[in-house]
Amino acid sequence: MVKIGVYVCHCGGNISEVIDVKAVAEYAGKISDVVLSRDEAHMCSEVGQQLLYDDIQEHKLDRVVVAACSPQFQEKTFKKTIESAGLSPYILEIANIREHCSWPHFDFPEEATEKAKDLVDMAVAKARLDESLKKKMMPIGSNVLVIGGGIAGIQASLDLGDAGFNVCLVEKNPSIGGHMAQLSRTFPTEDCAACILSPKMADVPANPNIEMLTYSEVKDIDGYLGNYTVTIEKKPTFVDPDKCTCCGKCVDVCPSKVPNENDEGLTTRKAIYLPNPIAVPHSYIIDAENCLGCYQCRDVCDPDAIDLDQSLKVIKKKVDTIVVATGFDIFDARDKPVYGFGKYENVITALDMERMIVYGAEGNPIRPVGERIAFIQCVGSRDEQTGNENCSRICCMYATKLSQLLKRSNPKRDVYVFYTDIRAYGKGFEEYYKRAQKTGVKFIRGRVAEVIEDPETKKLTLKVEDTLTRNMIKSQFDLVVLSVGLRPNKGTQNIADMLRISKSSDGFLQEAHPKFRPVDSFSDGVFLAGAVQGPKDIPDTVTQASAAAARAVRLMNQGEYALDPIMAFVHEELCDGCGLCVEHCPTQAISVSGGTASVNEALCNGCGSCLAFCPKEALDLHVYSNSQILAAVQAVLKNKKKGETRFLVFADDMTVYKLSDNVGTAKMSYSLDSRIIRVPSCSRITPRLMLEAFKAGADGILLGESEEKSSPFPNAVQAVKQNVAQVHQVLEKTGIEQERLRFVQFVTVMLGGFVKNMNGLEDYIRKNGEISAAKRNALTKYIQA
Amino acid sequence: MKTLTITSKNVEFLEKIETLSGQTITMCDQCGVCSGSCPMVEEMDIMPSQMMRDVQLGIVEVLDTKTMWLCASCYTCTARCPRGLDLSKVAEALRQYNLRKAMDYIDIEELSREELRHLPQIALVSGLRKFTS
Amino acid sequence: MSLKRLSYFPGCSLKTKAQNFEISAIEVSRALGVELVEPEKWNCCGTVFSLTDDDLLHHLAPVRDLIRFEEMQSKGLVDDNRVLALCSMCYNTLKRSNLRVKENDDDLKNINDLMYLEEDYKRSIDVIHFFQLIEELGFDAIKEKAVKPFDNLNVAPYYGCMLLRPKEVAIDDPEEPAVQEHLIESLGANSIDFPYKKLCCGSYQTVNNKEAVARLAHDILGNAQKRGADLVVTSCPLCAFNLDSRQKVVKELYPDFREIPVLYITQLMAIAFGLDKKTWGFEYNYIDPEPVLKNKNII
Hints:
B: 0% strand; C: 41% helix; 10% strand
């Protein structure tokens, strides 16, 4: 036996001017299990809160229903009071009689009062079955894995290390630094990239909280937030970095010469080599694949740093959070054969040019540049023909940079940039672009169609339209530089699979929310930093890396984190271990063992889309359980009189519930037949519940959900569609019009669209009339199936 | 200097060409790859990209230009358009818009007997298909 | 050895001005073990694929031919459901029309209904080009049959448009095709890569604008010659006309232009296989190929 207290708020007139609150309170007092029913001027005020607190103590209430404004506003306030009175905050139910009743129906006080009674009925029915849940606290330590040692990984590691957290930084190359270490100067200030990066790189091993594992790769990740087990493979370098003095004698005697990756193959290196001039760790390494095993290096090494006994090490680590900073690769320009990269010797990429400028600045040019140079923009970006629709964000600026660097170092050069747009959006970017124009770089608006080589001179002819003058340009150049776009790094897919991180449509890893959670992934505790999430320049990368570090600290700082109890659970007595549910969980939270399914609470996000797939209805959802939804539905329809029509609206918390609140706030009217029921996601409304709703008196049902692309629950829309399809089939068989059951995806600003949908459903129902009792009864056999 | 007045009537022409060609012509961002790829561009009076622009803005005078008739339907523009548009279909739509007014672009009577004998059928059939109604 | 029988669509020009293509192709195919079987009745495919969305009328002709091929298959006159086209334009038009009705049930229904005197087209035919047959037979089969000393012959393969565009009908990579290059090398000759191998010859513009075609031919052929080509091969009668016969106009407009023979790929293969001279069809070529071949000690 429970003791329910009901409070009907006047809301300072906002409710009481339309609804007869005293009548509603009186009505509620007569519902079974309700031991106390009051109306009150301002429930959210100090007075109201104190009243609630005192009532709980005095009357030993163990369930509370507040009929007032939308839970969006005061749910937290009431929960705090209830908790301080010693009860679980999850025994509170709110009947939204302002945004969903007095405001939209301000012209119909009598009908609004009746609707308010229904909403209170519904809240009481749900409250009666509420469980005294507590937020489960999970422990979390202070260990972070940072995957990727480019500027994003470096920044995140330093922020975390400085904050006192233990960082393990894993980098697959022999040195950290990433692509930034390859650059000449950075836009728009023309800082020397190596100069500003070097000190940051040196800070990493110097930080006592950071363990730096270079020449290492993450091979496996298992577990969840606060409990990850990572397997790392560290390749042997065959050189002891503590002994190597970088004297270089070994290089002279090494017989094996291969293309130098740091210079994009424009120069060569030996099998024993220094990965780049500012390498950290600053030590030579031996590339085992190209080493011929002659041991001559060992013979000339004075400090005896060559250690041929080294072997592959497998390291296992336990970490609590993970930052993914695996970065980018440049677009492989051979995939755009019209530009001749790989075929014509004088067609190079912008990254090649960066290396050439670095060497040129030292008076050591690695290949001729010539006097007539053309930059081709948008290579592998904004191009459906290569399958990359996205803009790569940095190419306009790096071309602006490279072109003016070339021009200023030799004013005789004639440098052209062929573009479609010049995107100079950032701080100092427009000014930098103007500087390029002042320097004499010629910007021509036209996307280059093709590049043809003269077989004798090896010079290149470009055919391009100058769209601003509508002239056809056919011009010969000594050198063509392709401004290649950015693509996700090859290793990223493996990491994404291991961590269950999905990709956006542009191939980069997807953030949990583009505006408000730009560095979170959908997996709790896994953060994204840098170009792995999308092309960006160095300032934005550093910003994101610091943001990711802060988000990780936020989770780890208190030593524990709370699990929201709205999550799936299994009625073990009903479960037969069939396992059909497992594959339908978007976060893979369900597993079957010992003949029973169980839900990993740390992974479950409470969407409820698994529920519909359980043939035994053994899967259920805390706080919005099957029995609660059923009770709520039956309660809200029980006062329906003959001749009246009603329809239910299941509104998802994230979007449609808020949208319906917004409609009420704007005082837009809609159908009085509607009864809105809040759910975390419509995917938890199983086909059976929909049929029960029709049986209980609903003449229509509208399922309102977030658009797929904004939904926090990856499978929700698909699950709802499937459930609706199943019910449509049953409706067809029983002669009930399928159009009575509708599924609409909304956005929170679609106020007019919401009203249209509500009124549209009412019109349809009124036109086709109530569902007959006979048809409702016919549903019974399908409900039991 | 010509001043262009754009009214809602201009939209009708755009919509008609979009329907005939099945292409969303407003997607063209005037990058110029089509013009750069076109084998016949040296003979044309307006660039292929300008042809698209004129249709976008509903400038009916584009129907009087020679560009659509100089198109060889080689599909190179289509193969290279970064927005995935099919310009060959737009050119065909413009040709058809003219031809369906029962006007021909070429008059076969103007070809000499010698030319007619010299040309293979493949040239005549395709030429007449493209240039006559 | 019994020959594999494949449906074959000649197209108009191969029966008249481009007989050199057909004669050489049929014999070369025989030598490779394939019998090209022409249907008793067929009609012009229309040459070009109609590009407006609302037009169905111009797809009747190609679909009618596809029905002929279905008939041939049901009568057991051929060994599979494919039809081989030699002419690139026929290939392109037949293939695109086939795709149009394969992807649009309504269009097929309308076309079948309109041609009510014909059997319904059941969408069972696949259209291939001669080069796809070569790839299937394998370049080793070609190497086996190539008996002439081609090693100092430089051949520039010209693709034109219709074999490579649009993507859905391309027989090879549209920007970097290689099938003709492999074929030429299998014959023992040197394949000349030149960037204008996919540049349009001007197509039907030759009807009323032969100066434009001459400019294009001048660029294409000049580009091949600059890279050392002795002759150019093609597989389209319209390209052959524009690049071969129109050299007369090219010479008028560009007096410094050096003539270069243009052959059908199958003519080159016929020579390479050592087949009889009457299969070469040189009488249909405008620029006589014999001097170049004699110069290279091939004939």
